[in-house]
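Retry 2 of 3 after timeout on previous attempt. Resubmitting structure tokens to design endpoint.
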């Protein structure tokens, strides 16, 4: 038998998926009934020549090994790979590994450890995903923020209230493991082959709960309402942690999988002597259009075809030494209230699996870096974020309403008086304000300078009635915790920073992959008898 991957197979929107096997057999010059096994491994949309939109596939096909296949750049023989089994290390573990945080990095670090015979304890400052969902819904309804359980904190991490995007720019075989684990825990099968897979916030909550149960079935433990407040260090290594200011837990291995919004935890760790450095990130606003406009701009006359779903976009433009770009685009979604501290306004985007809401939204952000923070203190990026979040809170009237503005008014610095064709989908109250006063001048200038280019790429993007909601500040971590080649924090044996909060990831998949990497290093180092 021989297994081949065949790329660039095309179907029209009107073709039935059953025709794909025949297209593959023609490419291989092998009768379709002689293809013994057939699996789609990638599906993407090509809308470059609209209205002639096509679906492009890569498939894996198994045929009789004696068959000759044509020489073609789109056909490659797949060699069988044997997954390397991790062998436990020899250092003894005096106590169970501790994982701080139950976002993607923490969950996948925990899952990897329990699958290899370790029994970690995962502590999470917020609530379980079921209780968290109710608390967040109440915040969106009445504006009363729970600073421990919210869109940023709680089981599943910040990505739980997002689109559940699984796209990533990293090239790592562990990405496949992440997708397979998500699928086995309840995500839709198409995440295994879609070029731009997403789980959807509604489905992701079920997936996260199922992952928790799986970790517990293997012997792991998850404790909610348990916030890391300090570390116990001895002789250059970790020897324990303090939870909620009073409970001490012994530990010679601790994974710091805290999210990028765990500002009080960063401050506590810095006091404990953990090294931090400033890191670039981006800030801006959320922009909303009707999903119908985006569908038409991207797919032309093929817009709204059932095989295409809600259209996406990805935009970027260099303006001097900065980049303005769209980020975390949510087709058919809503803009959500996402603060984690009192007296501040933060926005994010969220879509359900169906992506069937009226508006499309995306962050419209501009890069910022250490030169903008006003000094060398490692946590000044956090203060930079807080400054603009407070401005947004005040612009909204100081009662947790978010400031909003029509794009046309934003360009000219006028406070909007009424909504036009697009109404905000924000999950809380809104108030008209001038968003030019809620962001640095260089950020608003870069956004305005980029609008013409963005409108050229997505027709209608710069429409005057598009809605801006401020502010978006949590695009990525404002800090990085330097670590050694063994993934340990500088100068602290047994302490493993991981994921987005540590500055080593930028999304669900990359955070999960980093959690797996760290867990693998722990396995290679320590015996699993404890």
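Retry 2 succeeded. Sequence:
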């Amino acid at each position: 038998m021989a297994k081949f991957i065949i790329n660039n197979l095309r179907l029209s929107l009107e073709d039935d998926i059953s025709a794909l096997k025949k297209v593959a057999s023609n490419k291989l010059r092998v009768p379709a009934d002689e293809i013994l096994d057939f699996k789609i491994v990638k599906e993407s949309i090509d809308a470059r020549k609209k209205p002639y939109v096509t679906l492009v596939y890569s498939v894996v096909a198994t045929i009789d090994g004696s068959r000759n296949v044509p020489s073609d750049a789109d056909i490659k023989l797949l060699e069988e790979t044997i997954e390397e089994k991790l062998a436990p290390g020899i250092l003894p573990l005096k106590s169970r590994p501790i994982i701080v945080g139950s976002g993607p990095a923490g969950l996948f670090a925990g899952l990897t450890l329990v699958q290899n015979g370790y029994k970690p304890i995962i502590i999470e400052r917020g609530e379980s995903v079921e209780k968290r969902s109710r608390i967040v819904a109440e915040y969106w309804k009445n504006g009363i923020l729970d600073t421990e359980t919210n869109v940023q904190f709680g089981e599943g991490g910040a990505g739980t209230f997002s689109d559940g995007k699984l796209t990533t720019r990293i090239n790592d075989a562990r990405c496949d493991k992440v997708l397979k684990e998500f699928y086995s825990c309840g995500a839709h099968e198409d995440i295994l082959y879609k070029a731009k897979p997403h789980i959807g916030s509604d489905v992701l909550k079920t997936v996260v709960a199922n992952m928790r149960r799986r970790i517990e079935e293997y012997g792991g433990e998850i404790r909610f309402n348990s916030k890391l407040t300090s570390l116990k260090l001895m002789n250059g290594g970790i020897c324990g942690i303090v939870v909620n200011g009073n409970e001490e837990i012994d530990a010679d291995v601790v994974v710091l999988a805290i999210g990028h919004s765990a500002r009080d935890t960063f401050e506590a760790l810095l006091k404990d002597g953990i090294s931090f450095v400033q890191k670039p990130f981006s800030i801006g606003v959320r922009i909303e259009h009707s999903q119908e406009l985006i569908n038409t701009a991207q797919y032309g006359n093929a817009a709204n075809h059932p095989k295409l779903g809600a259209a996406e976009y990805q935009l970027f433009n260099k303006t001097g030494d900065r980049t303005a770009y769209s980020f975390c685009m949510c087709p058919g979604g809503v803009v959500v209230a996402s603060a984690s501290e009192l007296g501040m306004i933060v926005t994010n985007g969220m879509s359900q699996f169906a992506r069937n809401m009226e508006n499309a939204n995306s962050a419209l952000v501009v890069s910022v870096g250490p030169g903008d923070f006003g000094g060398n203190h490692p946590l000044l990026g956090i203060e930079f974020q807080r400054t603009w979040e407070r401005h947004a809170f005040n612009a909204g009237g100081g009662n947790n309403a978010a400031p909003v503005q029509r794009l046309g008014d934003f360009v000219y610095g006028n406070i909007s008086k009424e909504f036009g064709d697009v109404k905000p989908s924000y999950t809380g109250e809104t108030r008209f304000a001038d968003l030019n006063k809620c962001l640095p001048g260089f950020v608003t200038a870069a956004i305005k300078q980029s609008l013409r280019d963005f409108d050229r790429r997505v027709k209608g993007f710069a429409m005057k009635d598009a809605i801006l909601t401020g502010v978006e500040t949590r695009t990525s971590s404002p800090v990085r915790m330097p670590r050694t080649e063994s993934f340990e924090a500088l100068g602290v044996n047994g302490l493993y920073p991981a994921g987005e909060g540590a500055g080593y990831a930028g999304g669900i998949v990359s955070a999960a992959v980093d959690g797996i990497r760290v867990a693998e290093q722990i396995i290679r180092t320590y015996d699993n008898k404890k």
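Attempt log closed. The radius of gyration is 24 Å.
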